[in-house]
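Researcher: Re-running this chain for the archive, since the previous output was lost when a drive failed. Same request as before.
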Amino acid sequence: MLIISWNVNGLRAALKNNFLPFIKRYEPDILGIQETKLQENQIPVEIQNLEYYKQYWSCAVKKGYSGTCLFSKITPKRIRYELDDEKFNGEGRIIQANFDDFVLFNIYFPNGQMNEERLQYKLAFNEQVIEQIECIRQRGTNILVMGDFNIAHTEIDLSHPKANEKYSGFLPIERAWIDKIITLGYVDTFRYFHQEPLNYTWWSYRAGARIRNIGWRIDYCFVNNEFLPRVKKAFILSEVFGSDHCPVGVEIDLVAKS
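Model: Regenerated structure tokens:
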């Protein structure tokens, strides 16, 4: 099963670039996108007519802001669009899909750069995610959390760590939250397979950052330790353009390894 996550930074803009050719080329079984910037009545016809995929949309109350979508060839047993704390549910940031083998979370985590209040919102949102996934995992269910986390975890995950350690996205308190996920028994699948530097998923549009590979790795696929043996590979598709982010993903065995 091929599962891909991509922050498209505006689906209508991505459609003008590479979105449909990307789907045709990779044919993911599940595709989670973030930052759609759409209301449901604004979904383009070419997306509505996309073959083979069930579509699940979570839209922000504010127009042109945030939003997530899940495209799946496999019909989920259950879909949920919110966290347990309703204060986090107006921005269209989360889609939970329950499948036979696992529960998938497609999440566009908040950005904390605006101000201190927004940073605290981000940290509280992140803690709520942990509570929700842990509640499900403790029932014996496997978890896959993917999306734009808006955090670079370690110095290897961005081009200029020293220059950015006082900015949201690389603050110690944000990085400690990813440490916490790992301590609880979740795995950054890309780092499990790839330890080399210079692997990024987001680049500024300014100063030719992408061509120069001056970037950050802030898009992830995490799984619980118990699910890890089913992950065959994890990847970053840095060759795919169409957004300031590139897609990331995993390939998972549907049948447990012996």
